Amino acid sequence: MSATYTFDVFASLDGYGSYGPGGDWGGYWGKQGPELLEHRLSLFGEEQRMVFGATTYRVFEQMLASSTEDSEVRDDWARRMLSLPATVVSATLEGPLELPNATLVRGDAVDVVTRLKEESEVPLRSHGSLSLNWALMAAGLVDRVQVTIFPVITGTTGTERIFGGAADFDLELLESRTLDGRTQELIYRPSLH
Questions:
Q1: pLDDT of res. 70
Q2: Mean pLDDT of the region 48-69
Q3: pLDDT tier for residue 60 given thresholds of 50, 70 and 90
Q4: Which of 44, 47, 87, 159 has its CA 20 to 30 A from that of 80?
Q5: Residue 57, domain extent
Q6: pLDDT tens, 62-77?
Q7: What is the CATH number of the domain that holds 145?
Q8: Which residues pair with 159 in a beta bridge?
Q9: Euclidean distance between CA atoms 145 and 56, whole angstroms
Q10: Distance CA 25, CA 10 (A)
Q11: How many Å apart are CA 104 and CA 107, to the nearest integer?
């Protein structure tokens, strides 16, 4: 049996994953509320393995190094996510990795995740790691795309288009929910168009 793989990503309404200079929102665009934080913590309470690409792993490492106990990167769910067993797929990173349960794996991401899906006894999840997940979606390895849409438009400051480098996909809506009366979570099953 193959493990389920979820591509989990945060986005502005106009499809950006973050914002650049001049963006003054901070964190999750300053829109994280108690319901969202509790829901995110419950998602990472289940046993699973995280999968990250090198760029996202470096961002998490930098965020942790420069954060304080009160910053968003240290929210309970984020701490839990970063403490889970993780596979970091990279040809450029050098070990040892800073995250305690992270394993560096070299090789083609499609090959690595194909093997992980075959061998893993727990679900696989990736938060961010855009280009890695575009390749995995194109290869048919992503079972679920979970997009959390925050109520902001970042037309001027938005960076990192969530699906800017992805192929075309049809999406079957599996679940949807509203968190804190303003943030949407949509879970889809993708299929290459």
A1: 65
A2: 87
A3: confident
A4: 159
A5: 5-162+171-192
A6: 877 776 666 666 789 9
A7: 3.40.430.10
A8: 18
A9: 17
A10: 14
A11: 10
Q: What percent of the chain has pLDDT over 90?
A: 75
User: Do 77 and 37 meet the contact criterion of CB atoms below 8 Å apart?
Assistant: yes
Structure tokens given for 177: 């929910």
Angle, alpha carbons 61-57-42 (nearest 5°):
90
Closest CA to 186 of 153, 151, 145: 145
Domains contained in the chain, number: 1
Q: Which amino acid is at 58?
A: R
